[in-house]
Each structure stands twice: as structure tokens, then as C-alpha cells.
Sequence to fold (230 residues):
Amino acid sequence: MVSKVLVALDVTGVPVAVELASRLAEHVAGFKIGLELLTGSGPAAVERVAALGKPVFADVKLHDIPTTVERASANLAAAGARWVSVHASGGGEMIEAAVAGMGGADETGVLAVTVLTSIGEEQLAGIGLRAGIGEQVRLLAILAAAAGAEGVVCAPGEAPVVKEASRDLMVVTPGIRLADGDLHDQRRVMTPGAASSAGADYLVIGRAITASDDPVAVARRISKSLIDVG
Fold:
């Protein structure tokens, strides 16, 4: 079964992450490892999960000078990361540096984060960006494509904006919630089926799977529903 689901392993400790990932690996496309796990266990978390044979997205959201970003990306690639994330707002040169750090090969890539899914229009204006979320995502997607990013990270509702800006960009969408799920700290969310229909290539799903009573059953159900959507 082909899946679009990247499970967010927002858990404490590598043993817990590996145990959970090993149970889910057969039913999902890959895994996302974020700052919670990386700041506790370091790149070893990427290495251990990648050893299961599924792609790992190191969601570090790098935003620094190009040299630092290139070296950090290289470290994560060496640990086995299939993708690393950077903030697109860091600029084209920084994104290019991340691409270089990942090795520039087909087997690795950079995902450029556009506008965090926890941000609404009011929050965006509060940091001085008044073009609106859709336009901001469009501009950053164009920038990311020009700088060699493999894809972008955006809210599911902006997937069509990204595809219009560049058909070559892969779209990875967090902010996925089940129909009866809690929004937690997200604002711009969609159900898995709606996000897939909007054009998302991969869906990052965390607590809806990992905090459930039966993570494997939920992952299988979501993956099957996405295949049914087409």
C-alpha cells in the first residue's frame, strides 16, 4: 500500500521513537523528526529511525547564515535524513546552501517552510508581512523553486497556491487533523482527504496517530482513505 503519510515522531527519547516507528513503518510513507527529539537525542535519532528503511524528514527549520546552514544540513544528511527543512524567509542563498549541504543528489532534498500553520493573518501582519498568507506562500514558493528546493512546507489550504507557482515543487503539509480531532496549536488545518485533494504530496500527521490508543490501526485507516481519494 502506497501512503502519503509522514508520521511526526514528537516523542521523548530514541528508544520510544524507534519502537513506534518500527510498528508503523509498514503502513506509512516515512517519518518526521522534529526539534523535540533532535534537541534531546541529536542526529542519532535520525540515524536510528532511518535504519528502518523509510525516508526521514529532519524538520529542523534552519534559518541562519548560509555557511552554518550548509554544514548543519550536511550533518543531517550524513545521519541519514532524506529531507531537511529550512525557513524560506532566510533567502535564496541560504536555501542553495542547504541544497549543497544535502549533497544535491536525487536521494536527498530541502523542504522550504513558507508560513507556519500556527500563524493566522493577524499574526502575519504583526511581524510586518501584510501581503496576506496566500501571497506570502506564493512568493516563497517561487523563491524556493529557484534556489533548488525539492519542495515546500505549507498549510494544506495553500497547496494549490504552491502548485500554481511551480508544478515541480513537492508539497508537504502539516496541520492535518481528523474530522473529530483537536486543533491543538494549529490554525490553518484540513482533514487528510481534503489535504490530499488540495494537492498535498505528503501529509505530516503526529498526535492523531501517535497519541491514539491504536496508532497502527489509525495509520492504516488514514493511508487507505488517501488511496481511496486518489
